[in-house]
Design brief:
By secondary structure, the protein is α/β, with parallel strands linked by helices. It has one domain: Glutaredoxin. It has four helices and five strands. It has helices at 8-17, 32-47, 63-68, 95-106; strands at residues 4-5, 22-27, 53-58, 76-81, 84-90. A hairpin with a 2-residue loop joins β4 (76-81) and β5. It holds the Pfam family Thioredoxin.
Amino acid sequence: MSLQHLNSNEFDEIIYDNAEPSLVIFSRESCSVCQGVVPILEDLQSKYDGKYNFYYVDVEEQKNLFQRFSLKGVPQILFFNGGEYQGKLAGNVGDEEIEEKITEVFEA
């Protein structure tokens, strides 16, 4: 299951207006580390289907979103709950680390 790509308008609507509990990976196609992390999120997406939403932002196409959060490098996974930023994971993270953060942010 591939991650839904977001542009700035969709991002604002889903994350802030709808306040959906969501993970958003900021990535780019040419990033080799990102290409290792994205499949992990795709696998976790099916596990948490219906509970949390998983999205993808291409930083090459959506530079304004990348800059809005003052991110340095990719991949970065940002966590949002109730329309509020709840933290992030950066770099080459594994499924256990992501699931720990999911528990911390959404199930605490």
